[in-house]
Amino acid sequence: MAGRSAGIRKLFVSVAAFILGESPQVTITGNRDRVTATLRAAQASKALYEALSNPTTDMGRIKILLRSKHRAARNFKKKTGTKWLL
Fold first, then answer.
1. DSSP for residue 86
2. What is the dihedral of CA 2, 39, 18, 30, to 10 degrees?
3. Cβ(65)–Cβ(51) under 8 Å?
4. Of the chain's two ends, which shows fewer C-beta atoms within 10 Å, N or C?
5. What is the pLDDT of residues 26-76, one digit of tens each?
6. Which of 5, 13, 84, 6 lies closest to 45 in space, CA to CA?
7. What is the pLDDT of residue 25?
8. DSSP-H helix ranges across 1-86
9. In 18-57, which positions are buried (b, 16+ CB within 10 angstroms) versus exposed (e)?
């Protein structure tokens, strides 16, 4: 079980770097549904972060991106059994 938590921790560290615009070198392998859910959650989190960082983004756009992120996070939890922390 410790190996799984270390892997999850590494995943979230890498995704956080991705959200912040860094270029982490990560390869996600495994079940196609899990990989897709991870990618979509990371992309939705990044889109929301970028919108929140832009002072010209209106509240309507933020609401749309927030709903998208919540949907992606729920799907990630459903596919992986792990709560999306970002």
1. -
2. 40
3. yes
4. N
5. 788 889 999 999 999 999 999 999 999 999 999 999 999 999 999 999 999
6. 84
7. 77
8. 2-19, 32-53, 59-80
9. bbeeeeeeeeeeeeeebeebbebbbbbbbbbbebeeeeee
Structure tokens at 19: 């959200």
Q: What per-residue confidence (pLDDT) applies to 7? A: 85
> Residue 51: what residue type?
A
Q: Go through the chain and tell me how many residues it has.
A: 86
CA of 64: how far to CAs of 22, 44, 49, 60, 73, in Å?
25, 10, 13, 6, 14
